[in-house]
Amino acid sequence: MFNFFKKKKEENVLCHVKYYMVDQGLKLDIKMEDYSEESLSCLANILNSLYNNGLFFDTLSIIDYYFNEEGEIDNLFKLYEKLDEEILRDKLSSNVGEKESPCIKPSDMI
Questions:
Q1: Is 13 left (phi over 0), alpha (psi -120 to 50) or beta?
Q2: Distance between CA atoms of 53 and 63, rounded to whole angstroms?
Q3: Residue of 23 and 87 predicted with greater confidence
Q4: Average per-residue pLDDT in the chain?
Q5: pTM over 0.70
């Protein structure tokens, strides 16, 4: 199995949020180095990213990359089939087809 979190060099981890599944269901592990402004800002940035859905597609693209690297294309498709279609559709449609409007409307020019 592949390791998403290969450490290439020693990093100063201010905080991390880890999700994992056990027999009882989804678990969440949050670790912070301390309660400094820097650590609190780090946790706030993670929470903001989760709220804005930015991490969903970033995580999915990393998983896609590693499945491809390992030659597990069939299992990647199985994973995609297990994802909630409605969530994917909502996330994709919120990013696609957004109509931009001009700052100055043509009718304002007359």
A1: beta
A2: 16
A3: 23
A4: 78
A5: no
Per DSSP, the three-state class of 89 is: helix
pLDDT in tens, 21-74: 899 888 989 898 888 888 888 888 888 887 766 677 778 888 899 999 999 999
Q: Sign of torsion, CA 49 23 15 2?
A: negative
DSSP three-state, residue 105: coil
| Amino acid letter, 87 | I
> Distance between CA 51 and CA 58 in Å, rounded?
13
Q: What is d(CA 102, CA 28) in angstroms, rounded to the nearest whole number?
A: 43
The pairing of strands 25-32 and 15-22 is antiparallel
Among the listed residues 2, 4, 33, 37, the one whose alpha carbon sits nearest the alpha carbon of residue 16 = 33
Cα–Cα distance for residue pair 8/11, rounded to 1 Å: 9
